[in-house]
Amino acid sequence: MTRRMPAIACLLAIALSLFGCGSVEEKKQAIVLENTLAAYENTVRWGNLSNAYQFLSPDDDRDRQAPPDLNDIRVVSYEVVSSPVRMDEDTALQTVRIDYLRVDEQKVRNLIDRQVWKYEADSKLWYLDSEFPEFH
Which of 6, 47, 99, 126 qualifies as a cystine partner to 77, CB 3.0-4.6 A? Predict the structure, then answer.
């Protein structure tokens, strides 16, 4: 019995480490998602809106050219209305409210942006899968 104890302990340790790998990977994905959402928020809120198109997947065949009038938009606030919710292992949803104005009008408008984010295992990155918000 005492000879089997190290073998049993070793097998138990291997089983526990394999079982725990999934949760470690999920935690890494969650951290990457959190960082991606923060970077996207900062880009939309403080950066050049046309740079937000960089958050689309490289495999996405949508037009990456920002509309020319996007330079006339100034974002006043970016508020997370619904924190990110993981729908499955590679899909997350987040809803935000964006207050903005057109520089030629100086009238504050708002929109609700329902974002869908997809995780690509090969690159280990999250990409915006939903449409880019339309600023009317």
Answer: 99
